[in-house]
Write a structure and sequence with these properties.
Pfam families: YitT_membrane. The chain has one domain. 73% of the residues lie in helices and 0% in strands. It is an all-alpha fold. It contains 8 helices and no strands.
Length: 205
């Protein structure tokens, strides 16, 4: 006997839910970035470029992260619309502020690099999920990858992977080998969190 389920009523998140969720996702992302930067680690994307800039020029990670994201808002506006772009702008601003504020309230000078990298991967991955599910992102090369996929037909995953590979390879001369290994483990954890929990068609709202 076939049981026919009633159609699911899809209700988008309310403005209040977005207002609560986006700072939560941004906090988790900034916390993960702070932990990884505290061990002089590396990561992919715009955050990875911001890390390298801070190691080379001693600039603020949060400030560099925010500035580097600016050009991508124009792509986001064309590709995703103003609502996504505005939410992403707010998310990036909160992440940038969070990375700069965390050192004022907590001391992580005695962190284990492996623990920090794994925890950072979990925090960033979870933060990304929260932002994705509320129509936002952490900006950066992910927007570029989506744009190239729609305009050139290039697979977004391959574009993002290639960019991340270039960033990690470029960091070899600046990062201790063990820290680099820990950072790669953290990146694997991050991608597993996103891959397992973020699949089209499985989440409505």
């Amino acid at each position: 006997m076939t049981v026919i389920e009633p159609p699911v009523e899809i209700r988008p998140h309310s403005l209040l839910e977005d207002a609560l969720a986006i700072p939560t996702g941004a906090f988790l992302l900034s916390w993960g970035m702070y932990l990884l930067h505290a061990i002089d680690g590396v990561t992919g994307g715009i955050a990875g470029v911001a890390f390298l800039a801070s190691y080379l020029g001693h600039w603020s990670v949060g400030a560099v992260f925010f500035v580097l994201n600016v050009p991508f808002y124009f792509l986001a506006l064309r590709r995703m619309g103003w609502r996504f772009t505005l939410k992403t702008l707010v998310s990036v601003a909160l992440i940038s502020v969070g990375v700069s504020l965390h050192p004022l309230y907590i001391d992580v000078s005695s962190l284990s690099p492996l623990y920090a990298a794994i925890f950072a991967g979990l925090a960033v991955g979870t933060g990304m999920l929260v932002l994705f599910r509320h129509g936002a992102s952490a900006g950066g090369f992910g927007i570029l990858a989506q744009y190239l996929q729609s305009s050139r037909g290039w697979r977004a995953g391959y574009v993002q992977g290639a960019i991340d590979l270039v960033i990690v390879v470029g960091s070899v001369a600046l990062v201790d080998p063990w820290i680099l290994v820990c950072s790669i483990i953290g990146a694997v954890v991050l991608n597993l969190v996103v891959a397992i929990n973020h699949r089209p068609g499985r989440y409505f709202g």
